[in-house]
Write a sequence for this structure.
């Protein structure tokens, strides 16, 4: 039953597939994360230059924000649902995500495989990772099934960066993600920067864990800058920094390894320079064309 859903998504008609709108590569669209209207001028300029084929909107957004002003196709994403929490999903958040995805007919909705999301009582964020146990796996599979049924469209799961090995019943977070995705029969977003950060923080090989993912489930890659902490002990996400050459090189290799990748999303904040934003899109386009 669920296998049919997955197959259907991967064979979307060309006019609905994000990849068909790609301005650069034949197979993968290059897009960027959109958080608010302050980015829209950069997005419009990148679109004019043929660098940007879609925007990945992070829902929920303010009622005053209008991501359609850029006229770019929208891929829906959220990092606010606690997909790995036994307390389930906040319906108010999910309703806003669904409304955005429905309005744009997003081919899938990105969700973080995190324990706790954001709430009015405190922002704990997607870096609060699940314990890697069978119990968390079961809860995550059930939450993904509930979200997919509610959304009426596929879900693609993404991991946050890891700072310590929380191994319980699984060899790593990559094995946990692979198992949840398999049992929930759903898609995967591989955040290349998060994965690189986890590999460095945990002292693993730079290509660690790829075998744990079903290759055909990976439909999207995320890329961003990264930095070392002030103490020098840990690596972190850094959306204001340019994407390092090694992350671009990993992206090129991952597109070859995962044949169903349709979308590559640059995560670049307004703290970063405008020229870094355009050159990041150009470098990604060159890497996968
Ligand atoms: Fe990401």
């Amino acid at each position: 039953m669920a296998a049919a859903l997955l197959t259907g998504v991967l064979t979307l008609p060309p006019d609905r597939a994000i990849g068909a709108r790609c301005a650069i590569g034949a197979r993968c669209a290059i897009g960027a994360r959109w958080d608010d209207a302050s980015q829209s001028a950069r997005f419009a300029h990148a679109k004019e230059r043929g660098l940007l084929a879609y925007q990945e909107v992070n829902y929920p957004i303010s009622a005053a924000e209008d991501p359609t002003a850029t006229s770019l196709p929208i891929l829906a994403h959220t990092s606010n649902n606690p997909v790995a929490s036994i307390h389930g999903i906040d319906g108010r958040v999910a309703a806003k995500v669904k409304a955005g995805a429905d309005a744009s007919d997003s081919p899938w909705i990105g969700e973080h495989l995190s324990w706790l999301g954001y709430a009015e009582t405190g922002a704990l964020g997607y870096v609060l990772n699940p314990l890697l146990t069978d119990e968390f796996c079961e809860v995550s599979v059930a939450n993904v099934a509930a979200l997919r049924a509610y959304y009426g469209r596929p879900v693609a799961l993404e991991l946050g960066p890891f700072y310590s090995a929380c191994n319980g019943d699984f060899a790593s977070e990559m094995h946990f993600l692979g198992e949840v995705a398999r049992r929930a029969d759903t898609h995967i977003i591989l955040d290349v920067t998060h994965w690189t950060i986890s590999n460095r923080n945990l002292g693993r090989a730079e290509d660690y864990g790829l075998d744990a993912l079903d290759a055909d489930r990976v439909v999207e890659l995320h890329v961003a800058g990264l930095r070392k902490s002030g103490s020098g002990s840990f690596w972190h996400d850094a959306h204001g920094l340019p994407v390092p050459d090694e992350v671009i090189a990993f992206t090129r290799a991952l597109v070859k390894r995962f044949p169903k990748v349709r979308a590559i999303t640059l995560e670049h904040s307004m703290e970063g320079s405008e020229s870094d934003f355009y050159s990041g899109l150009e470098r990604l386009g060159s890497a996968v064309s």
